[in-house]
Design brief:
single chain, alpha+beta, Ribosomal Protein S5, domain 2, 4-stranded mixed beta sheet, 4 strands
Length: 94
C-alpha cells in the first residue's frame, strides 16, 4: 500500500460502553506511531490494543501518527473501525 500521512487531527467514537474515542494527530515523518491509552482496561489489554492500532495504521499505509484513545471495554473490531474512521477524517485518503 502507498504511504499515506494524516493532514489534520481527527477523532471518531463515543464514550459509550463497549466503544472508544480514537484521536489521531499528524506526526513528523520518521517518528513512527506513538500511542497513549486512557481507561480502565489499559493495563490489562495494553499490548493487544497497541498491536491493533499499529497493525491497522500500517495496513492503511500510515507510518507516522500520534494516537490517543479512551474507551470503556471496546471490542477489537470497534478499535479498528474507530481508527479507520479517524484516519479518513484526518485526510489520509485525500
Amino acid at each position: 500500500m502507498a504511504a499515506r500521512k494524516l493532514l489534520r487531527e481527527a477523532q471518531a467514537g463515543t464514550e459509550e460502553r463497549e466503544d472508544c474515542i480514537v484521536k489521531l494527530s499528524p506526526a513528523e515523518p520518521g517518528t513512527g506511531i506513538k500511542i497513549e491509552i486512557v481507561g480502565k482496561s489499559r493495563d490489562v489489554f495494553r499490548d493487544e490494543v497497541f498491536r491493533i492500532f499499529d497493525n491497522t495504521l500500517h495496513g492503511m499505509g500510515i507510518e507516522d501518527a500520534i494516537v490517543w484513545s479512551s474507551g470503556k471495554s471496546p471490542l477489537n473490531f470497534t478499535i479498528v473501525a474507530r481508527t479507520k474512521a479517524a484516519a479518513i477524517k484526518g485526510g489520509a485518503f485525500e
